[in-house]
Amino acid sequence: MTRRRPSAIPCMTDLQTEIPLSGGRVTRGVVRVGDTVRKPVTENSEFVRSLLEHLASNGSDFSPSFLGVDESERDVLTFIEGDVPEELAYFDEKTLRAAAILIRKFHDLSSELVATDAASNIEVACHNDLSPCNFVFRSETPVAIIDFDAAAPGSRANDLGYAAWLWLDLGSLDIDVSDQQRRLAMFLEAYGVTSPKSVLESMLERQALLIEEGRRNGDDSLSAWATNCRNWTRQNLETLRNA
User: Fold this and answer.
1) What pTM was estimated for this model as a whole?
2) Do 228 and 112 have their domain in common?
3) DSSP result, 117-168
């Protein structure tokens, strides 16, 4: 990828107040300034910029647009109006279908940006955190995806495994396994997947990774939650495979 210096955004005036964004799952230090979002630059910023520019140039209205950098060397993105969930929840069938269709649109567009490689299982640009907490809702419907900081080339199943886990809140003891089987089948059908096998395999892998991340960072609550979810998924794997 050719490196280039992103365009500069004019300096902020005293009238432009920085409002910290804490809803959903956002990177630390993210603020809103007027109709823009300012984000600290990371090692992955160059890929994220290219991805957002690619999506925008292909008519996407479901992701932020990259506008350049500001005087503090932060990435500047468009702000998308709407509501962002702070926690997982039980979403109805209409909402789950809308989310799956949106993810499919993102994957299809992003596939044009990456060099596909069957040997490395690279098909699309994965968001890598397709939780409901990284979606913007309007009228209780998901309409946009935000926080692409972890985006990287990967497989559809890898992104879908994590998305299905969190959108369905798999592992919650408040939701019957038969209901989860039905909801998983509907979610994957809306995306266009005919078999849940690879998605479930990726889901188990992501759950294991999150367990290790929690242990590594001393986050016992994260590790315990992911462990419980993984145990539930393994215990009900045969039922889910028949989704």
Assistant:
1) 0.90
2) yes
3) BTTTTB-EEE-S---GGGEEEETTEEEEE---TT-EEE-HHHHHHHHHHHHH
